[in-house]
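Take a careful look at the sequence and tokenised backbone pasted below. I need to know what the token row says about the fold.
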Amino acid sequence: MSLIKRFFQFLARVLHIPIGGTGRSKQTRRWGQLISTLPQVEISTATYSDIVGYFVDDRPEDDRIVAGALLRRTRSNSDAGILLVQSFLDSNKNPVYGSAKKPYGRLILARNIDNELRQMFHGRDLIIFE
């Protein structure tokens, strides 16, 4: 099973979205599309400062954006690090897509996260920045 597919399944569980079959919700499809089309960035340590900086400095000029989301998953091989999906959300907490029909955001492959970011997650896998 591909890394993206495993991550999508994890995302659906975290967001409590049903997956599979013909009953997949619009939100499930949107998040699946989000993960598969995001640009990938590899870094050694993801920091809270970098995450917030991206939301501020790289925020698209799109009035639909009201929040940001950061979702994490520790990869099954602990040496492989952590996957983080960073995206911009609308008022319904759905990813916002640009004119090219691609969502705004990025997929981060990090070896580690800093303590400040770890504390922000506080045992959860999803942080919403409003």
User: Anything to note?
Assistant: The mean pLDDT is 79. The chain has one domain: 38-129.
